[in-house]
């Protein structure tokens, strides 16, 4: 694994490099909740559900797909629907065996549902190289599904900033779920309706201002290619002022061709594979109380390309699905399991999931469930932690380790303090320049009266954020700042 985030010099990108903007908005900033960013519980409409299932089938059958387009009817009509762009689609993209994920009338909340419920489930090892995303215009007009079974608080009054957040949310999900796929995020294309177009321009400006790594996400604005000198749309490129003509699709293809080629020719993305290993604290009761929810964004905002890996994805003893799309859900946290269980069972969990960085937080379950004396109990925990680390090193001699102290508890503080002292000693004795172990200390600033849930062991959202901050600091120490973009 090379801890390097390379940069592509692409002239048409309108996103700014995060390393030069300081406090500028970041592509990976948390997504504000709004009707444009809140996905439905399910898709009941016959047409939309049919297209959703159609894409799922195509994705499961895809073998050599290197490109997919995600969007609404403008995307749909490339090769489906009216097929006005079919010949151009075939000429430009047939070599990439593309998947058309367009869906007529689609809006950002439904698209969020689609990308989190199967539309991105490409077979392992077969992630496309490039995704093209165009959406947002329908948020200004569509307030219910085609069959009327679903309704949304969207329409003419939908704030442009919300549309921009919805588009960015979808792009984030693509990058998280397909860590080897680069994203071309297109600005909303001009439309004849001047009121709508003014709002689209505001949404476009919001997306363009977000700092991003141009090796991951290319923000491309093609509006000038679709406008006449007086600022009106070029009617030759449209069928009705919104949807494109055959010539419009040709202009679209020509506009993104340089980026598609650069991304197709670029070396594969090489994200840092991070495994979060632990007990109930790592698994979490739900997304908001799991530090995983916050660590993901902190690392990405720092500029890291990452891929959280593991054999599990849920919460609360593997019973509760994640209730947020804003983080990579893979992990190796096991509800109610102590350090001895982890030392014994981790080997089979590593099949197909070998990390570059392992974050280990073990001992809380032992301390809470065992009545053994402090010295033998803590010695046993450290022995089990060492077994876990030695196993990881036997599989990857270059693995980097973050070893965490145990967070405070409302009971057995003396045992926890003793354990944390021994964990600190272990790090000092077992970290070498070649096989590094970095200590994470989530106890700093942790308040048992404010940061723990009612059970006295698990963190609440406030505590989860503090754990994530400690882990982000430790992981950043392991990834050489000099090689970060």
Description:
It is built from 14 helices and 11 strands. With 485 residues, the chain is of the alpha/beta class. The protein has 2 domains: 18-265, SGNH hydrolase (Rossmann fold, 3-Layer(aba) Sandwich), CATH 3.40.50.1110; 272-483, Rossmann fold (3-Layer(aba) Sandwich). Helix 4 (108-116) packs parallel to helix 5.
Task: Label this structure with key terms.
485 residues; alpha/beta; Rossmann fold; 2 domains; six-stranded parallel β-sheet; five-stranded parallel β-sheet; 11 strands; disordered C terminus
H/I helix tally: 14
pLDDT < 50 stretches = 1-22, 481-485
What is the number of strand segments? 11
SSE topology string: HEHHEHEHEHEHEHHEEHEHHEHEH
The total number of structural domains is: 2
Brief digest:
This protein is 37% helix and 10% strand.
How are the SSEs placed, and which strands pair?
Layout lengths: L45 H16 L5 E5 L1 H4 L9 H8 L5 E4 L5 H9 L13 E5 L25 H18 L4 E5 L7 H16 L7 E4 L25 H20 L6 E7 L1 H4 L8 H10 L4 E4 L22 E2 L5 H11 L7 E5 L2 H6 L4 H22 L4 E5 L8 H18 L6 E4 L20 H18 L7
Parallel strand pairs: 1-2, 1-3, 3-4, 4-5, 6-7, 6-8, 6-9, 9-10, 10-11
Helix pairs in contact: 3-7, 4-5, 5-6, 9-14, 10-12, 12-13
């Amino acid at each position: 694994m090379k801890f390097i985030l390379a940069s592509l010099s692409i002239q048409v990108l309108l996103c700014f490099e995060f390393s030069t903007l300081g406090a500028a908005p970041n592509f990976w900033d948390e997504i504000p909740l709004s009707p444009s960013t809140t996905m439905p519980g399910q898709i009941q409409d016959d047409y939309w559900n049919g297209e959703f299932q159609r894409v799922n089938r195509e994705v499961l059958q895809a073998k050599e797909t290197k490109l997919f387009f995600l969007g609404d009817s403008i995307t749909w009509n490339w090769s489906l629907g009216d097929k006005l762009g079919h010949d151009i689609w075939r000429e430009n993209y047939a070599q990439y065996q593309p998947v058309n994920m367009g869906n007529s009338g689609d809006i950002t909340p439904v698209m969020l549902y689609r990308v989190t419920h199967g539309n991105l489930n490409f077979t392992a090892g077969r992630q496309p190289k490039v995704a093209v995303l165009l959406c947002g215009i329908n948020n200004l007009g569509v307030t219910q599904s085609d069959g009327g079974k679903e309704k949304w608080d969207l329409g003419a009054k939908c704030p442009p900033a919300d549309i921009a957040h919805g588009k960015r949310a979808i792009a984030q999900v693509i990058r998280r779920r397909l860590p080897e796929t680069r994203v071309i995020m297109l600005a909303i294309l001009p439309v004849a309706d001047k009121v709508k177009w003014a709002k689209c321009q505001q949404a476009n400006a919001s997306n363009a201002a977000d700092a991003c790594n141009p090796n991951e996400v290319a923000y491309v604005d093609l509006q000038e290619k679709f406008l006449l000198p007086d600022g009106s749309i070029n009617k030759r490129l449209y069928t009705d002022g919104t949807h494109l003509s055959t010539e419009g699709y040709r202009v679209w293809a020509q506009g993104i061709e340089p980026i598609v080629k650069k991304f197709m020719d670029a070396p594969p993305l090489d994200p840092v594979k991070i495994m979060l290993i632990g007990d109930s604290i790592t698994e979490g009761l739900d997304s908001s109380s799991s530090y995983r929810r916050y660590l993901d964004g902190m690392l990405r905002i720092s500029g890291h390309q990452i891929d959280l890996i593991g054999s599990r994805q849920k919460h609360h003893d593997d019973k509760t699905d994640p209730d947020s799309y804003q983080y990579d859900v893979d992990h190796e946290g096991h509800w109610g399991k102590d350090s001895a269980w982890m030392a014994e069972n981790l080997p089979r969990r590593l099949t197909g999931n070998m990390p570059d960085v392992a974050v280990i937080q073990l001992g809380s379950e032992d301390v809470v469930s065992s009545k053994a004396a402090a010295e033998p109990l803590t010695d046993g925990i450290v022995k089990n932690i060492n077994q876990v680390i030695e196993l990881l090193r036997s599989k990857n001699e270059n693995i980097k380790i973050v070893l965490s102290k145990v967070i405070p508890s409302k009971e057995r503080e003396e045992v926890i303090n003793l354990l944390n002292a021994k964990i600190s000693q272990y790090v000092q004795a077992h970290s070498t320049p070649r096989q590094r172990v970095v200590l994470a200390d989530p106890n700093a600033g942790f308040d048992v009266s404010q940061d723990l849930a009612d059970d006295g062991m698990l963190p609440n959202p406030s505590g989860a954020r503090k754990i994530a901050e400690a882990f982000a600091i430790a992981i950043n120490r392991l990834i050489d700042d000099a090689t970060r973009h």
